[in-house]
Known about the structure:
This protein is mainly alpha-helical and 247 residues long.
Amino acid sequence: MRRFSIFVSLALALSATPGFAQAPAQPAPAPRPSTQTPAQTAPAPRPSAPPIPVPAQPPAPFPQGAKIAFIDFQRVAQESAEGQASSGKINALVQKKQAEGAEKAKQLQANQQKLQQSGGVMSDQARAQLEKDIERQQREAERFQQDAQAEVMELQQELQREFERKIVPLLQQVAQEKGLQLLLSRAESGIVWWDPGVDLTSELVKKLDAASPKAAAAPTPAPAPAAPPAAAPPATTAPATPAAPKK
């Protein structure tokens, strides 16, 4: 029985750990007025010709008799509909947490400025209460940072497991169709040279997209009810002539 061991990396996380409680940026100082003579306006460049579209290269054929191939899982995550949807979910959560952290940082900064500007004229009780509020907000900001990072990590791991669950049967299918003895991951195998035909990434992306559930078709709107027939205009017959009186 063949064994498949894969190390899949979705490459969905940001390159740096996102900050969720950053203080709002300080406004940049206004530039000093320049005393130099303004430079003459250069003539507008002529519009360049539109680039000639390069036709897409067909995938290289799989070498006949080859028993080893590889998959670039980072490309699978970036190019497949499944990977793009997972990346969108993570980015949405990160943006949500960043917005929440920015609001908390704004409130903390407002209290810090209030203490700095008005602390000298406050009563001892009011100043002590404001200092306690600032300490509490600082603790909450640190805890929020930790909780937000843990929530993003948990979502990444959940999507990772779901991705692997869907992709393992497809890897087995590709390996059986090509008659492979070994299917490698490009990131972990240390490949330095290969025949383009043994790169089965695009084929796996197609299979993954085909296996992913399609968006439900929008229901066809019901036809508008037919307009009622127009009412017939009233008859315009001439009034009856009264009978002549009897003599």
